[in-house]
Amino acid sequence: MTREPDARATLLLSLASAWMYGDQDTLEKSLNVYGEWNFARVIVENNALFLASEVCFIQSKCRRLLIVCAKGTEPGNIFNWLTDASVASQRFHALGRVHGGFARNLAVMWDVIDRYLGAALRGEDVYEVLPGIESSPRRPVGPRVDGEPAPEAVGKLEALYITGHSLGAAMAVLAAARLFTDGKYGDVRRFLRGVYTFGQPMVGDAAFAARAEELFGDRFFRFVYANDIVPRLPPLSTGHFAHFGKAYRSTGEGWTYEGKVAGQTRTFLVSASVGIFAWLKHQLPIIRWIPLPFSWGDHSPANYVEASEQGTEQPAIFRFRLD
Fold first, then answer.
1. How far lies 39's CA from each of 67, 145, 223, 298, in Å?
2. Residue 73 lies in a domain
3. pTM of the full predicted structure?
4. Which residue among 15, 80, 304, 314 is least enclosed by CB atoms within 10 Å?
5. What is the domain count for the chain?
6. Using one digit for the tens of pLDDT, what is the confidence trace for 237-269?
7. Closest by alpha carbon to 55, among 74, 38, 41?
8. pLDDT tens for each residue of 205-224
9. Could you give the CA distance from residue 207 to residue 202 in angstroms, rounded to a whole number?
């Protein structure tokens, strides 16, 4: 069966990925327009290892749907940038070699992800999984009164989505790959409905890409806005990396399937300079006509939300796919 991305899922997941960069209250308000959710946000940091990993677990009130959303590179977070720059590859189970910084960033969070996935399978409220961790600044929205027991669960996990923007997108890919390489997660794998990534860099070598495509490529959807430079990174000068999965491109008016995938830039210094100039020329109409192959400005998560909003009924209650 040929799978295509769900438009409402794309919108909701692009919003989650974008508002992961903001505060928890705004993230919750943005998503509660499209349904009622429980939220649990977890941050794991290790300054000595130059790692800062952040994931939000977003669960429908009926507990049948779980979204795992990883946060991308925060402009002011030096540890995120060091993670991105740690390009030296390492083995990732039996799939091939992957970007070492991405793999380590996922590894420091994996025990937490494992616990939340287990809770979702049992039909538990994700907000209650790790008491004591500051995963949310307030109680989840819903019919709940302090001092009273939680509402009775109406179901267990039936649909799982994994998503993220930029670094978060890379973590989403590796999280899905981990689920498909460990026999322990057989029950979770059958509920995976989609891995949706926005502005995702390349994650692994050709061997990893081929094996990941075989395992979950039919459930993997990669979105690229216009000439976003990040999907063409890491540069070729740091080693050979490759994309996989279905790619969709937009310039602001919805998403269109793209058969041809752009390759790596040659060197970071030159490509980054071109990307910065592309952003600057967009601010100056007199030179806006100059064609350039990639841009840092196109990497903004706001672009991905705008493109996902096109053609999607507003407002819409997000309904997950069980087929």
1. 10, 16, 25, 29
2. yes
3. 0.86
4. 314
5. 1
6. 888 999 999 999 998 788 999 877 778 777 655
7. 41
8. 999 999 999 999 999 999 99
9. 13
